[in-house]
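in:
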């Protein structure tokens, strides 16, 4: 995947939530390479503080976060009317069916297994773009 393959159309705001700052930045660069804007948050509370003002089309949220799990942060985001149309994807090293089910129960729309591949991210961006059309 190269920048030439990035989707056309308006840029989407993507909030990346990961306490591993290097992983968050790397995913941010990938999102940027695919033609999108991004902001980083390194905890669930920071994500809750940033999201309403940033108005993300997509949140990519790690599950293992300090202080508040990604599950808890997702549930709190779902309670905020300003984020009613935001798509939230779990990103985690856990990919078994029980983990996917727990993500769904917490309110996540998608479940990505780390490391997130370019193809998986591109597919998710395409899905988000179609849902916003």
């Amino acid at each position: 995947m190269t920048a030439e393959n990035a989707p056309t159309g308006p840029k989407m705001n993507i909030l990346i939530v990961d306490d591993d700052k290097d992983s968050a930045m790397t995913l941010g660069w990938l999102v940027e390479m695919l033609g999108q804007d991004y902001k980083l948050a390194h905890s669930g509370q920071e994500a809750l503080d940033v999201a309403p003002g940033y108005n993300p089309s997509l949140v990519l949220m790690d599950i293992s976060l300090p202080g508040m799990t990604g599950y808890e942060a997702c549930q709190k985001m779902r309670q905020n009317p300003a984020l009613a149309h935001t798509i939230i994807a779990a990103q985690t090293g856990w990919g078994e069916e029980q983990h996917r089910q727990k993500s769904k129960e917490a309110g996540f729309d998608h479940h990505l297994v780390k490391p997130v591949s370019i193809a998986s991210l591109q597919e998710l961006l395409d899905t988000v773009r179609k849902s916003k059309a």
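note: Strands lie at 13-17, 37-41, 58-62, 87-92, 110-113.
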